[in-house]
Design a protein that fits this description.
Layout (H helix, E strand, L loop, with lengths): L2 H29 L24 E7 L3 E6 L5 H11 L5 E5 L11 E4 L2 E4 L4 E4 H6 L1
Parallel strand pairs: 2-3
Antiparallel strand pairs: 1-2, 3-4, 4-5, 5-6
């Protein structure tokens, strides 16, 4: 191999690596909106359920996977359970946050099937047991 052929191959490899890196950077910057939130086209807008017994605000939803909602602190546990049961028809996990703490990881309750994880109490239990507390 001649020196010019080796330089040509190195230049082509460098160009391919550079093109791949710049494409990844462009994809990342396109997915981040000006306010810092990452847009996700799989998230579907959701209207408030008219059967819900407690008012809630949808913070984030990914149909079939999870929904994160905000519910006021003074709501009745039975009404919260009823609302979560309605949402569980479309989502496998329902995370509940306080209205003033709405970021990911701020949930204080997480409902999966008939189990509720109470992060404040540090334990999980059946929903019926949680309602009775």
């Amino acid at each position: 191999m001649t020196i010019s052929f080796k330089i040509l191959i190195l230049a082509l490899v460098a160009a391919a690596v550079f093109a791949g890196c710049s494409r990844l950077k462009a994809d990342r910057t396109r997915a981040i909106e000006p306010d810092g939130f990452v847009s996700d086209p799989t998230v579907e807008p959701l209207c408030a359920d008219t059967k819900a017994q407690v008012p809630y605000e949808v913070l984030e939803a990914r149909r079939g996977d999870f929904i994160r909602i905000s519910i006021a602190d003074d709501c009745d546990r039975k009404a919260v359970s009823s609302t979560v049961s309605e949402l569980a028809l479309a989502y496998s996990r329902v995370d509940v946050c306080h209205p003033e703490f709405t970021e990911r990881g701020d949930q204080y309750l997480s409902f999966v099937g008939d189990i509720v994880c109470d992060f404040n109490a540090g334990r999980s239990m059946p929903i019926s047991e949680w309602i009775a507390l």
